[in-house]
Design a protein that fits this description.
binds glycinamide ribonucleotide, seven-stranded mixed beta sheet, Formyl_transf_N, 6 helices, Rossmann fold, globular, transferase, alpha/beta, 194 residues
Length: 194
C-alpha cells in the first residue's frame, strides 16, 4: 500500500514507520513526506532514506484550500492510498478530508479525548494525572478528534520528570503507530477484496 507521511518536526514516528517497513512489520511503501516546515528534521530523515519530500508552507498559498490542492496533487502523483500524520501540527481541511475519507490517521500523545491540542504531554504532567498514554485515530475536521482506533496507557510515577514521561510516551508511540498502521492496511485490503 502506498503511504504518505505528513510531519512538521523531528519525525521520530516517521523514522519508526520506516523501520517497521524495512523489517516487514508494515506492508507498505512511503512514497512521499509532506512537510510544512522547511527546516524540520523529518526532511533530513527522508533524504537519508531516499524518500521524496514535498515541502508546502501554508503562508505562501492564497488560501488553505489552495495549500491542500497542491498537497493533493502530489499525493495523486505518487498514487498515495493512506495518509499518516506524524507530528503534523495543522488541522486537515475539507479538500484533503473529502479526497481521503477514512484514509487519514493521526497519533496523539495522550489518551484522547483528554488533553487534545498542543503540548499534550505538558498538559498531562501539569494536571498531575497518574496515567496518560497514546491514541491513534482517524482524522476528521476537529483538533485531535475522529474515531479512535487504538490506545495504550503510560503510567506516570511520583518520581517521573516530564522528560521521563516524554520518553515513555515516545517509546509507546514508536510501537503502537506501526502496529496500528498495519492493522488499517489489512482492513482496507480486506474491504477492497470483499
Ligand atoms: C508525537 O508525540 C505526536 O504524538 C505528536 O507530535 C509528536 C511528534 O513527534 N502529535 C500531536 O501532538 C498531534 N496533535 P515526532 O516528530 O518525533 O514524531
Amino acid at each position: 500500500m502506498n503511504l504518505a507521511v505528513f510531519a512538521s518536526g523531528s519525525g521520530s514516528n516517521f523514522e519508526a514507520i520506516i523501520e517497521a517497513i524495512n523489517n516487514g512489520e508494515v506492508r507498505g511503501e512511503i512514497k512521499l513526506l509532506v512537510c510544512d516546515h522547511p527546516g524540520a528534521y523529518a526532511v533530513k530523515r527522508a533524504e537519508k532514506h531516499g524518500i521524496p519530500v514535498f515541502t508546502a508552507v501554508l503562508k505562501t498559498f492564497a488560501s488553505k484550500a489552495a495549500f491542500e490542492e497542491a498537497v493533493l496533487a502530489e499525493l495523486r502523483k505518487h498514487e498515495v492510498e493512506l495518509v499518516i500524520l506524524a507530528g503534523f501540527m495543522r488541522l486537515i481541511g475539507p479538500v484533503l478530508l473529502s479526497a481521503y475519507e477514512q484514509r487519514i490517521l493521526n497519533i496523539h500523545p495522550s489518551l484522547l479525548p483528554a488533553f487534545p491540542g498542543l503540548d499534550a504531554i505538558g498538559q498531562a504532567f501539569a494536571a498531575g494525572v497518574k496515567v496518560s498514554g497514546v491514541t491513534v485515530h482517524y482524522v476528521d475536521a476537529g483538533m485531535d478528534t475522529g474515531p479512535i482506533i487504538a490506545q495504550e496507557c503510560v503510567k506516570i510515577d511520583e518520581s517521573d520528570t516530564i522528560e521521563d514521561l516524554q520518553r515513555n510516551i515516545q517509546r509507546v508511540e514508536h510501537q503502537l503507530y506501526p502496529q496500528t498502521i498495519q492493522q488499517v492496511i489489512e482492513q482496507i485490503k480486506g474491504s477492497v477484496h470483499s
